Amino acid sequence: MTNGEMTHDLSMMGLFLQADPIVKAVMALLVLASIACWAVVIDKALLYRRLGQEVRSLTVADPAALSGARDARDEGLAARVLRAGGREWAEGRDEAESRGEFRDRMERAMRAAFTGGLRGADNGLQLLATVGAVGPFVGLFGTVWGIMNSFSSIAQSQDTSLAVVAPGIAEALLATAIGLVAAIPAVMAYNRLALRLGRLRADGIAAIGGIGATLARRGGPQIAHQRSAA
Known about the structure:
Number of strands: 0
Structural class: mainly alpha
Distance between the termini: 98 Å
Largest sheet: none
């Protein structure tokens, strides 16, 4: 391929190959950022689907199963939360402990297990937010740099024909286009995933509150034993 052909190659690959090294670096960085964002989106979509199933399990859980019958080998989030509540319930309610205090003790144990299970669930969302906020400006930097080089080349060649001006400007604008392609999905995915994670937290805490209320009404094994003895 001759230099003349390269100059007039307005395909995306051609524009990339003809671009200034700094503009190439900007484009490559944005493409890599976009790939990383999509990897985060896919990973979090699968993770949040699994967490959603765990939270639904908490919502429909039978509090009677908290007596320790849960399989200790089950490492799911719902199982860990129920085991944490079951340990507190199995200890029973102290004579000086009110029903509200007993409930609060169980709920605190379950909330701690639930929070621990969600730890790290927001990892990667920061990348989406960063790319969404910074991506267009990085692309704009590449565009400005490319247009500056184009004007410099025009001044040196003293030729302002469209055939000479268009390729350089197209190369520069491609950087902005790639920045937008990386940023727009990142912003949309961040908003969607952050909302989903917030709902999972809220639903999980609500389910824990319902389990705690049910168990507090029943009382612990010690209370039940005292009632049967009486």
